[in-house]
Amino acid sequence: MTTRTITIKDVADMAGVSPATASRVLSGNPATSPESRKRVIAAASQLDFHPNAQARALRSTRTNVIGLLMSDVRNPFFADLAHSAEQTALAEGFVTLLGNANENAVQQDRYLDTFISQRVDGVVAAPEGMGSSSLRALLAREIPTVFVDRTIDGIDVPSVTTDSDNGIRQAVEHLAQQGHTRVGYIAGPQATSTGRDRLRSYAKAAQDYGISTDPALIYFGDFQSRSGSDGAHHLLSLSQPPTALLAADSPMAVGALATLNRKGMRIGRDMGLIAFDDIEWFSLLDPPLTVISHDVEAMGRIAVELLLELINGGQPSSVVLPSELIIRASSGTADPVVART
Amino acid sequence: MTTRTITIKDVADMAGVSPATASRVLSGNPATSPESRKRVIAAASQLDFHPNAQARALRSTRTNVIGLLMSDVRNPFFADLAHSAEQTALAEGFVTLLGNANENAVQQDRYLDTFISQRVDGVVAAPEGMGSSSLRALLAREIPTVFVDRTIDGIDVPSVTTDSDNGIRQAVEHLAQQGHTRVGYIAGPQATSTGRDRLRSYAKAAQDYGISTDPALIYFGDFQSRSGSDGAHHLLSLSQPPTALLAADSPMAVGALATLNRKGMRIGRDMGLIAFDDIEWFSLLDPPLTVISHDVEAMGRIAVELLLELINGGQPSSVVLPSELIIRASSGTADPVVART
DNA sequence: CTGAAAGCGCTTACAG
DNA sequence: CTGAAAGCGCTTACAG
Question: Is CATH 3.40.250.10 the right assignment for the domain spanning A164-294+325-331?
Answer without folding.
Answer: no
